[in-house]
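Query structure, 308 tokens:
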């Protein structure tokens, strides 16, 4: 009896302490972090091709492009992939999507129960399939990896083809509580392309994808007041890069003007071409002529906490 009442008193005290601790512990802060998996382009120059993982509250949730080598980088970092269900593809050049099947399989073998991928990408044109068709070519009934959707548990793919109409304003393509994803069409030679913005709990990051200068006004609209603007940097200011590359990529001076117009808080250069690597001080100086904010060059496996 005595033991019983002592136990009761202890439990009451513990309950009080627990309630006190609960009341005193602030709710966990919502955070968004970007991990640069691959910060290079198509050339084999020491960086993985282009791709990022975005962590919400410390857990990987979104994949933004997945060029060759990005899966190896995620593996080297031991990133848990079982909740990565949102895939944003800026365009279907190989250096931005070659590792998508590797990510799908890695999640598939981990997952206990049916699972879904929401996959966003541009609509098709010319030689380039729409992202929905591209998924069918890979994972459909007659696709190259037709086995994958039922390899472990059942995988459902939900594709969304995004407009390539440059006259359309940015649109919200996904919403879930404090998470909002928007997109706008960009221009990248003959390859349909889009840029994405992720807003989470008051912070935002914008991914340019590959784009030539004709699409920078659209990027500036999408990136208005963004906390982190990630821009692909391949060419030097004209005429220092091969003429043909200006039909695909945007030079530093124009990137600086765009970051200024968008009032971006900071700029991260990625998809680093060898010319950018060799001439970083002059690239930064060119951007700084218009844009006063901080500009950094991404490295594979670097992490960026996005703060409002
Ligand atoms: Zn590229
Ligand atoms: Zn490209």
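Result returned for the query:
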């Amino acid at each position: 009896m005595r033991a019983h009442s002592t136990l009761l008193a202890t439990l009451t005290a513990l309950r009080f302490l627990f309630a006190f601790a609960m009341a005193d512990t602030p709710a966990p802060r919502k955070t968004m972090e970007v991990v640069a998996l691959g910060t290079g382009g198509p050339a084999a120059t020491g960086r993985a091709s282009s791709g990022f993982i975005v962590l919400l509250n410390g857990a990987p949730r979104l994949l933004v492009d997945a060029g060759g080598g990005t899966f190896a980088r995620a593996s080297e970092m031991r990133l848990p992939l079982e909740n990565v269900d949102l895939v944003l593809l800026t365009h279907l050049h190989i250096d931005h999507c070659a590792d998508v099947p590797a990510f799908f399989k890695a999640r598939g073998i981990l997952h206990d129960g049916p699972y879904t991928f929401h996959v966003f990408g541009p609509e098709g044109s010319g030689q380039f399939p729409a992202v929905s068709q591209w998924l069918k070519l890979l994972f459909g009934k007659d696709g190259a990896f037709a086995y994958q959707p039922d390899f472990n548990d059942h995988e459902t793919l939900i594709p969304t083809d995004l407009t390539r109409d440059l006259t359309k304003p940015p649109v919200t393509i996904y919403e879930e509580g404090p998470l909002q994803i928007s997109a706008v069409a960009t221009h990248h030679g003959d390859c349909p392309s889009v840029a994405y913005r992720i807003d989470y709990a008051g912070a935002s990051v914008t991914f340019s994808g590959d784009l030539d200068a004709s699409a920078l006004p659209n990027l500036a609209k999408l990136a208005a007041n963004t906390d982190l603007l990630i821009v692909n940097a391949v060419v030097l200011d004209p005429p220092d890069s091969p003429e043909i590359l200006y039909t695909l990529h945007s030079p530093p001076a124009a990137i600086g003007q765009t970051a200024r117009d968008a009032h971006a808080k900071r700029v991260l250069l990625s998809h680093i071409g060898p010319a950018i690597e060799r001439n970083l001080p002059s690239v930064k100086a060119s951007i700084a002529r218009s844009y006063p904010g901080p500009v950094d060059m991404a490295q594979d496996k670097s992490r960026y906490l996005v703060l409002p």
